[in-house]
Amino acid sequence: MDPAAIAARLALAADSGAAASTAVAPIVEELFVREGPGAGPVDRPVRISGLVSFQGDARTLTERDLTGLAARLVREVLGAVAPGEAKPAGDEGRAVVDALARTLHALGTVDLNDVQAVRLGPERFARHLAVAAPDAGRDLSAGAARLHGALLELACLHMLRFFTRRSAFVARALADSGGRQSESAADTTSTTTSTTSATSADDAAFEERYAHDIVTGHDHLTIYGIDLAHSPDSWPLDSAYLSLEAETDAGPSAPADQALSGRERVLLRGVAGSGKTTLVQWLAVSVARGELPQELEGLRGRVPFVLQVRRFGRDGFPGPADFLASVRHPRAGGQPAGWAERVLSAGRGLLLVDGVDEVPEEDRERLRHALRRSLARYPGNVWLVTSRPSAVRENWLASEGFTELRLAPLSREGVAAFIQRWHAAAREDAAADLDRLDAYEQTLLDAVRINRELGRLATNPLMCGLICALHRDRRGYLPRGRKALYDAALSMLLERRDRERSMPPPDGIDLTQEPKIQLLQKLARWMLVNGRAEMDRPTAVSTLAQHLPAIPHAAQQGGPEEIYRHLLNRTGLLREPAPGAVDFVHRTFQDYLSARAVVERHDFDFLIEHAHQDDWEEVIRMSVALARPDECAYILDGLIAARKGSRPVQARHRKLLAAACLEHATELDPEVRARVHRYTRDLVRPTTLEGARALGWIGPIVLEMLPDPTVASDEEAHRLAVTATSIADDRAIDYLVRLRDRTSWAVRSELASAWRRYDTDRYADEIIAHLDERELDFPVSNLEELHALRRLGGRPCVQIAGAFTPRRLVEGLVADRLTELWLAYDLGTHLDLQWLAAFPRLHTLRLSSRNAGVTGVPEGVQVIVTGP
Question: What is the distance between the alpha carbons of residues 673 and 459, in angstroms, rounded to a whole number?
Answer without folding.
Answer: 33
